[in-house]
Amino acid sequence: MKFFIDTADLDEVKEAQDMGVLDGVTTNPSLMKKAAEKAGRRLDFHEQIRQICEMVEGDVSAEVTAVDFDGIMAEAHALAPIHPRVVVKVPLILEGIKAIKALHSEGIRVNCTLCFSPTQALIAAKAGAAYISPFLGRVDDISFSGLKLLEEIITIYGNYGFETEVLAASIRHPIHVLEAAMMGAHVATMPLSVIKKLLKHPLTDIGLEYFLADWKKFRA
């Protein structure tokens, strides 16, 4: 499973990169807003994406904000040349699907975002999306199972050999990551806080405490 960090914050990207397990980055308009608020200044969107691409070796998703075909295509054509690692992020709407088909024919890779049903995922794969991003946490928020959605998408893609990679998004906690990995999701994108939680276990902390205490006595 590839690990992506879901952020537009350069400091967070660096911290995750320093761990040596980072495979890519996903961004969105909300994360860009959050990064700008932390920086205390307006950020140049394209420059922020370029800097992130220079920091990692994997794909970096940069999202369009247009909702009409011509607007999505125009933004995609502006985003894709920023860096070879850029994957254009397009919402799963009718105009978005049309754009994904057109962009795929041009060789521009697309991460199809805001997926909440297996039939949406099927359409996105048929249109040629490089990634599909089902939002696990947001599905859970409305009392449905995000993991069930993920399982259905993986099954459908496996049935027909789609090359679209399943990118588990809106991950809230380590169980999401564990279950997604067991199902065979290609990618999990998550906040830095969740990446760190994957490391935590109380028995590790207790064991380390015992070892260090015994070592201190041994050295006394």
How would you characterize this protein structure?
This protein has 220 residues and is α/β, with parallel strands linked by helices. The chain has one domain: TIM Barrel (Alpha-Beta Barrel). The protein has eleven helices and eight strands. It has helices at residues 10-19, 29-39, 45-55, 69-79, 94-105, 118-127, 136-141, 146-160, 174-183, 192-197, 202-219; strands at 2-6, 24-26, 59-63, 86-91, 110-115, 131-134, 165-168, 187-190. An eight-stranded parallel β-barrel has the order 1-2-3-4-5-6-7-8, surrounded by seven helices. Helix 5 (94-105) packs parallel to helix 6, helix 6 runs parallel beside helix 8 (146-160) and helix 8 (146-160) runs parallel beside helix 9. The radius of gyration is 19 Å and the shape is globular. The mean pLDDT is 97.
Separation, N- and C-terminal Cα atoms: 45 Å
Radius of gyration: 19 Å
Please work out how many helical segments DSSP would assign: 11
- Structural class designation: alpha/beta
| C-alpha geometry | globular
- Strand neighbour order, sheet with most strands: 1-2-3-4-5-6-7-8
Low-confidence blocks of residues: none
Second-tier CATH architecture: Alpha-Beta Barrel
What's the helix-strand series? EHEHHEHEHEHEHHEHEHH
